Amino acid sequence: KLLKEIFNSADIDKDALLSIQELARYINDRVKQHIEQAIAGNSAMFIQVDKSPPDGLITWEEYHSYFLKNHGLSDGYVNDHDEKKHKGLDREIKEAIMRDRAMWSEAARNDPYSLTLDEFLAFKHPESSAANMLGIVDDLLEKFDRDGDDVLTEDEFATLPDYDFTPLFGDETTIKKQSKQEESNRRKEFVHLVDKNKDGKADRQELLKYVDPRHPRHSLQEAATLMSLADANSDKYLSLNEILKKMELFLGSKMVGTAKSFHEDF
């Protein structure tokens, strides 16, 4: 029923088929909605957690207490338990605590013991955090900006540095051919998706828009993947029947399980 409702919402021209454009548009709308809700909900949750004391910072102890209470643990357990063993907790909750600890370490840029409002957003919703996106831009510049001028040219963006042609499969000629195709694709990507002001360079602002999950390219890539895996008759459209036959694929995608899919990505 859920997939049928989503299918009907995505089917803009009501021809009982989804084109890749309809699929991508629907996914992009879902992504934008998810990020807007994550940012709006982050502030409210921050205030709920920031209690002891309410000082504009969340400590691990504050968050951990909030987490345990949210999972039905008593005040007695929350205030007095073995932090390392967590006796009595089921495996799923223990694994969630371990994931939270790892994510906390990633998000805590200034102080390992506390998070600011934006760091808390990076902790709970890394896909929505401006600071996290800036970090991705830094990684792009570090990887591709050979002359260190803090912008990327088409050549820098298109050519992978120090590419090793040692074949992982096939022969060296095949690997080189694949590399040339990849370079051609990246050049097209730079011209059409990255260099928005057409000055031959991509500055931080352009790169920030490029890596933003709300950029349509991400949704188009996801739509293309879903299409390739579910289009059984290869007509470049998806019917409801084709989607239902790949139910697990779509339920785990950003088309349906947007939040879950993002958190698996990160």
TrEMBL record:
One of its GO terms (cellular component) is endoplasmic reticulum. It comes from the Eukaryota. GO terms for biological process: calcium-ion regulated exocytosis. Residues 1-33, 132-167, 182-217, 218-253 form the EF-hand domain. SMART domains: EFh (SM00054). One of its GO terms (molecular function) is calcium ion binding. InterPro entries: EF-hand-dom_pair, EF_Hand_1_Ca_BS, EF_hand_dom. This is Putative 45 kDa calcium-binding protein isoform x3. It comes from Xenopsylla cheopis (Oriental rat flea).
